[in-house]
Write a structure and sequence with these properties.
Rossmann fold, 17 strands
């Protein structure tokens, strides 16, 4: 009788672990895309708090390789308050979105040859609740912070694997960028605590990666001035005067002279694209702008700088960098709408039209299984409805704790990002104090220098990507797929 029970139990467990993903979450077509999807896509909601009706929205892309063995990667965009569809649409998702030529038409979707789904199963999660298509029936949940976000996302993972148990044995990684520099290590810490406590099911967590990540008030706050000097954006004299008057501390002012010099630097760099100083800032060159110019000059002179590519604001995942004087520190973090109201003459260089048109289309929303518009009226790349509190301090101790336990970590930076400059990231990675096991060297892709890398003990790696900005996969898709593939497969980058 006991043997029969064991046989039946084995059959039951085998069925549970091999049953297919929920059919009602399967995405069968995507408006704007002609052809067959290269792998299965699923989308829907996971309720992380039944009592409050707190629901996190996900979009899951199975690997185009061997989905049963390839890693599962959770992707998180930053903000705080920005949707991970930013990554899906503009960075590492399965499609490239072509802007429509006809007003009101849907973008055309073309296969992205450098999608991260080429080598992994990837979950794009709108987190925390209130972001993108995620929502709660209790609006008090939109008053949240680091600790609650980590807890909710940890709950999401357990419930997600209940829906997709066939992926439980796959290696699990967490990845993200910008303010996800907080989301990722704090979530990883929750996962490791659960593993060590014997929480079931046991997640097969292997490591994490973060790009241009928020990490520490002092390191991030002191990063921009050396970056601007090293990139030739400010003179030796300005740099030396500022360093002397501010005593090498740039994220808070120690004197009137220091404040004036920091303001001078801000004025010098304010016309640059903060997310990639190599990129142009497109503007309308419109009537209002021309009124401000000298009316005695010929119109052709007054329109200098006007571009054919006229783009409105692109609301991205912001790291709250020093030029906005809103670095991440303990307490409430300014929302993006609050931030933009304070940036004055800062450039508005980006366009979110493609994502907004596609994700707010009724047919698209139906195809990807979002709730009705009476629940979530519109999708915004970055929401203003959160009241978000940074309540877990510096991330440096989290990184040291996780890597000392053997979990792999890749910290990568676009070397032309002025939002969260690599100078700060390099400084805090070095501060952890690990022995260098792979000395600073060029990092090659197809025999070309694609960046620079330094490897530390405990599988802790720092990488800069040459010519890239804040969103590395968007600026350098081929290079990002290369290091991503190497990292999730445990290979030397």
């Amino acid at each position: 009788m006991a043997n029969l029970y064991l046989v039946l139990l084995h059959i039951s467990l085998t069925f549970v672990l091999t049953q297919s993903a929920p059919r009602n979450s399967l995405v069968t077509n995507l408006p704007g895309f002609n052809g067959s999807l290269h792998s299965k896509h699923y989308a829907g909601y996971v309720t992380v708090d039944e009592q409050h009706g707190k629901n996190l929205y996900y979009y899951f892309v199975e690997s185009e390789g061997n989905s049963s063995k390839d890693p599962v990667v959770l992707w998180l965009n930053g903000g705080p308050g920005c949707s991970s569809f930013d990554g899906f649409v503009y960075e590492n998702g399965p499609f490239n979105f072509e802007k429509p030529t006809t007003k009101g038409a849907l973008p055309k979707l073309q296969v992205n040859p450098y999608s991260w789904s080429k080598v992994s199963n990837i979950i794009y999660l709108d987190s925390p609740v209130g972001v993108g298509f995620s929502y709660s029936k209790n609006v008090s949940d939109y008053n949240t912070g680091d600790a609650q976000t980590a807890l909710d996302t940890h709950t999401f993972l357990f419930k997600w694997f209940e829906l997709y148990p066939e992926f439980l044995a796959n290696p699990l990684f967490i990845a993200g960028e910008s303010y996800a520099g907080v989301y990722v290590p704090t979530l990883a810490d929750k996962i490791v605590q659960g593993i060590e406590a014997g929480t079931k099911p046991k997640l097969n967590f292997k490591g994490y990666m973060v790009g241009n990540p928020v990490a520490d008030e002092k390191f991030d706050g002191n990063a921009l001035v050396p970056f601007a000097h090293g990139m030739g954006l400010i003179s030796d004299e300005i740099f030396e005067d500022t360093t002397r008057e501010c005593n090498g501390t740039f994220y808070e002012t120690s004197s009137v002279k220091c404040e004036n010099l920091l303001n001078k630097i801000e004025k010098v760099i304010q016309k640059l694209d903060i997310y990639n100083i190599l990129e142009p800032c497109y503007h309308n060159g419109g009537e209002e702008e021309n009124k401000k110019s000298d009316s005695k000059l010929p119109l052709s002179f007054r329109q200098l700088g006007k571009t054919e590519k006229s783009l409105p604001v692109r609301k991205r995942m912001f790291g709250r960098a020093w030029p906005y004087k809103a670095i991440v520190k303990d307490g409430y973090v300014l929302s993006w709408p609050q931030l933009t109201s304070n940036i004055g003459g800062a450039p508005r260089c980006y366009d979110d039209e493609v994502a907004n048109v596609w994700l707010n289309n009724g047919k698209v929303r139906k195809a990807i299984h979002t709730v009705q518009k009476n629940v979530v009226p519109s999708w915004y790349l970055c929401t203003g409805q959160l009241k978000y509190k940074h309540d877990l301090g510096s991330m440096v101790p989290y990184h040291k704790k996780l890597t000392s336990k053997g979990y792999r970590a890749l910290i990568y930076s676009g070397d032309h990002d002025m939002c969260i400059p690599y100078t700060g990231t390099q400084a805090w990675t070095r501060s952890i104090g690990y022995k260098i096991v792979d000395e600073w060297r060029p990092w090659l892709v197809n025999d070309q220098v694609a960046g620079y890398i330094q490897g530390y003990a405990n599988n802790f790696t720092f990488l800069t990507v040459k010519g890239s900005g804040h969103t590395v996969p968007e600026y350098k898709p081929q290079e990002s797929l290369y290091f991503y593939k190497q990292f999730v497969n445990g290979l030397r980058i």
